[in-house]
Amino acid sequence: MFDYIDNIVTACIPLTEEERLIFHSLLRYRRIRKRSFLLQEGEICSFDAFILKGCFRSFYMNEDGGEINLSFSIEGNWVSDPQSLGDQEPSDLFIESLEEGEVLLLDHRGRTELLERVPKFERFFRLLLQRNLASLQRRWHASVSHSAQQRYTTFIEVYPQIAQRVTQTQIARYIGVSPEFLSKMRSSMYRRVS
After folding, report:
1. Do 82 and 174 fall within a single domain?
2. How many CB atoms lie within 10 A of CB 148?
3. What is the pLDDT of residues 135-150, one digit of tens each?
């Protein structure tokens, strides 16, 4: 169970056997049912979750009650609300499992203990945060400079394994269009190709 997460971590930082055992002792395995929430708006995020199995989405509700997908996370990725976790303040995000899932949870107390006992994990979490920030920055840039068709095409090209696992409605909520608009746009795209 720990081999997968160990490979991800040791690609960024080397660990001794003792450091690896400390890390493992702080992780908690959890099965997640489809359509269940790891986090809901208003709760304080108390975890970093490493995904062993499943597909999760992070989203928020706009003022009209519409869902806006911020990100999708699959096996080998971490999911959390870094702002809520770091500040220990209520989150404005929801994190939902779109499939049956399995995660390894590192709770807030465990994360604090891990950083005290194995300081090199500071580097690991900094690199993880930098990657997530870069991804969000690219997404923001695309949202203000690319057409809906370009955003859709890029999503399909960059995240083919996610595109096959989520509904077109979820993709529409990610690229910032209505499901109806995405359906019409896809029809138009495929007619031009034919």
Report:
1. no
2. 16
3. 889 888 988 899 999 9
